[in-house]
Write a structure and sequence with these properties.
InterPro entries: DUF7266 (IPR055690)
Order of helices and strands: HEEEEEEEEE
Keywords: Membrane, Transmembrane, Transmembrane helix
Shape: rod-shaped
Radius of gyration: 29 Å
Number of helices: 1
Transmembrane segments: 16-38
Length: 153
């Protein structure tokens, strides 16, 4: 016996629902892909900004070293270095060791290492040769014991 064709109406509703589900899955996939591209670009920009700041600090350190060695015993060298307080809207730290300056954001495993050359050792206010400072304005100062003191301003 014939029911009057009610099967066709059910298949249109099912087809419409399947189309909506497929479009939703595609939309979610596109959004998540765009999110990962944006995150990747953000990390790339952060790395570039940290590299620029690290190279700026390394150049200033080498400049103070050259001025101190060229000036003799009575030389007074003091230099302000203006680095950004935040990189990609995040605070960062500067780790200084014997031959390298490392910049890294507080909440990110990303870091940039910049080498430098200085005959005079870099120290913090406590005389330590390996130390960390927050990003921002720094002061480089030649001390009486032939070291370059680095401190936050």
């Amino acid at each position: 016996m014939y029911n009057g064709g009610t099967d066709r109406a059910v298949s249109v509703n099912i087809g419409y629902t399947i189309n909506i589900v497929i479009m939703t899955v595609i939309f979610i996939g596109l959004i998540s892909a765009a999110g990962s591209v944006i995150q990747s670009e953000r990390q790339s920009v952060s790395a570039t900004e940290m590299d620029v700041a690290g190279n700026q600090l390394a150049a200033e350190v080498m400049s103070v070293d050259r001025l101190a060695r060229a000036g003799g015993d009575e030389t007074v060298v003091q230099k302000q270095v203006r680095l950004p307080e935040r990189i990609s809207d995040e605070q960062y730290r500067i780790s200084i060791t014997e031959n390298t300056i490392e910049l890294s954001p507080r909440n990110d495993p990303l870091s940039v290492v910049v080498p430098y050359r200085s005959e005079l050792p870099l120290v913090n206010a406590d005389g330590e040769t390996e130390f960390e400072l927050p990003g921002g304005e720094l002061q480089l100062r030649l001390t009486t014991d032939a070291t370059v003191e680095v401190r936050s301003v």
